């Protein structure tokens, strides 16, 4: 959530940066925020004045009673009643104004960093790095969904019978490959200084609001209305909320966490060939990395996280590229995002497998996540997160790129986890 003070002091800049995200009605929304904040300030000033008058009268009444001037004291008590009634009225007005102000602020996205390109769609994203050789497959190579059926390792039809489309059943060597990747990703994160946590798979409304899933992504989340819970779309939500309403010591930063979880997304409106097989699921496995840092060092931490993800893809021997997302393709909460894509040789296209983002103070303001700086002053922290990695499209690319006429080769880095060199 943007800070009101920053909006007031930088109104034109805020409107301009929201334009980079192509946020509709940016100017009118920001002006509404400033107008409501003016009302809030004026109402607060009037309320403070009434409270001061009530306190002054209470002291005067006490003095009059001590002096035996009962009639005069009773006269002033009537005025005190008027003050209390006005105080109640102003208090209710203030609560309504603050609620309206918060509701508008929750609908305004984060400002994009100065390095974010001003584009509208994924076609406008910038490729900032690419490495790895695109594999040449043997004649007769097929897409991963055909491989899954051939080797009986992932059953999409069975998952549809049990639950619905987008909920596959991993079997035999397919289940083992999933477990191998999860353990590999967690071990690599541990080697690189990330502390593992195992969070809940459901969060309450306060947690979803704090990280920005609500109200922006409510339609994409699976809700449990009876209990007021939501199934997590990513471990970012519960892990980041570990630090909600806390004040960290600067000496403890950066804080780096990793977590494996299943993720649940409705993916409403997703249709066609791009969602076939493992390309887009409603339930999937992912290892997430989350960092908390100071504003001065968060962009260094972003590079650490990007390098970590790149290292995983190198060890999996997958060709990949890194894209800096344009304003129109970024998430609601992000200040800057880098997507990692791997090349799927059988599908002949790039598949997104990770997003690494810096949210700057946007989430921290919602979370009330702060730290004490060297001057013992309380400041908002910066939050960052990234996929390291999401499994479905990694599995798709591994199966497709490593298929041979005699089986599917397992990358060397995974062989000790998988217990074999080939899926046969």
Keywords:
424 residues; alpha+beta; eight-stranded mixed beta sheet; three-stranded antiparallel beta sheet; 43% helix
Can you walk through the features of this model?
With 424 residues, the protein is an alpha+beta fold. The chain has 13 helices and 19 strands. The chain has helices at residues 4-9, 11-20, 26-66, 70-105, 144-151, 156-162, 173-191, 205-211, 236-241, 298-315, 362-367, 391-401, 412-418; strands spanning 126-131, 154-155, 169-170, 195-196, 202-204, 223-224, 229-231, 246-249, 255-264, 283-293, 320-324, 336-344, 349-360, 369-372, 378-380, 382-390, 403-404, 407-409, 422-423. An eight-stranded mixed β-sheet has the order 1-11-12-13-16-10-9-4. The chain has a three-stranded antiparallel β-sheet with strand order 5-7-6. Strands 8-14-15 form a three-stranded mixed β-sheet. Strand 17 (403-404) and strand 18 (407-409) form a beta hairpin. The model has no long low-confidence stretch (mean pLDDT 95).
Mean pLDDT: 95
Q: Provide the helix percentage.
A: 40-55%
Number of distinct beta strands: 19
For the sheet with most strands, the description reads: 8 strands, mixed
> Shape, please?
elongated
Percent of residues in beta strands?
Answer: 15-25%
Radius of gyration: 27 Å
Number of helices: 13
Arrangement of strands in the largest sheet: 1-11-12-13-16-10-9-4
Q: Which structural class fits the helix and strand makeup?
A: alpha+beta
The N- to C-terminal Cα distance equals 51 Å
Q: Which consecutive residue ranges, at least 5 long each, have pLDDT under 50?
A: none
């Amino acid at each position: 959530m943007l800070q009101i003070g920053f909006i007031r002091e930088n109104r034109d800049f805020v409107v301009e940066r929201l334009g980079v995200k192509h946020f509709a009605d940016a100017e009118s929304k920001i002006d509404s925020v400033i107008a409501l904040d003016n009302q809030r300030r004026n109402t607060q000033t009037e309320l403070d004045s009434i409270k001061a008058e009530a306190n002054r009268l209470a002291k005067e009444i006490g003095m009059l009673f001590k002096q035996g001037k009962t009639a005069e004291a009773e006269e002033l008590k009537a005025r005190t009643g008027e003050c209390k009634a006005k105080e109640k009225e102003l208090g209710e007005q203030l609560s309504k104004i603050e609620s309206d102000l918060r509701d508008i602020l929750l609908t305004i996205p984060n400002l994009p960093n100065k390095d974010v390109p001003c584009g509208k769609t994924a076609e406008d994203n910038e490729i900032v790095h690419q490495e790895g050789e695109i594999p040449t497959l043997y004649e007769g190579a097929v897409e991963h969904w055909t491989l899954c059926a051939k080797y009986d390792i992932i059953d999409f039809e069975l998952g549809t019978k049990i639950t619905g489309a987008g909920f596959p059943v991993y079997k035999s060597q397919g289940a083992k490959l999933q477990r191998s990747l999860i353990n590999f990703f967690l071990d690599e994160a541990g080697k690189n200084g990330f502390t593992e946590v195992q969070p809940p798979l459901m969060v309450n409304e306060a947690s979803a609001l704090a990280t920005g899933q609500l109200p922006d992504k409510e339609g994409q989340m699976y809700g449990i209305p009876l209990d007021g819970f939501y199934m997590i779309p990513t471990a970012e939500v519960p892990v980041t909320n570990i630090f909600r309403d806390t004040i960290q010591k600067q000496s403890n930063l950066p804080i780096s966490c990793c977590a494996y979880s299943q993720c649940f997304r409705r993916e409403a409106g997703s249709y066609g060939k791009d969602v076939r097989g493992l390309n887009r699921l409603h339930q999937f496995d992912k290892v997430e990395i989350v960092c908390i840092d100071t504003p001065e060092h968060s962009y260094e931490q972003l590079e650490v996280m990007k390098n970590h993800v790149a290292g995983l893809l190198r060890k999996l021997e997958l060709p990949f590229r890194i894209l800096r997302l344009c304003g129109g393709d970024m998430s609601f909460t992000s200040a800057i995002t880098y997507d990692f894509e791997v090349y799927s040789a059988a599908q002949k296209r790039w598949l997104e497998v990770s997003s690494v983002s810096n949210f700057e103070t946007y989430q921290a303001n919602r979370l009330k996540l702060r730290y004490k700086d060297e001057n013992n002053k309380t400041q908002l922290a910066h939050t960052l997160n990234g996929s390291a990695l999401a499994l479905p499209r990694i599995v798709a690319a591994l199966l497709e790129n490593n298929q041979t006429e005699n089986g599917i080769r397992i990358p060397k880095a995974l062989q000790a986890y998988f217990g074999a060199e080939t899926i046969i």
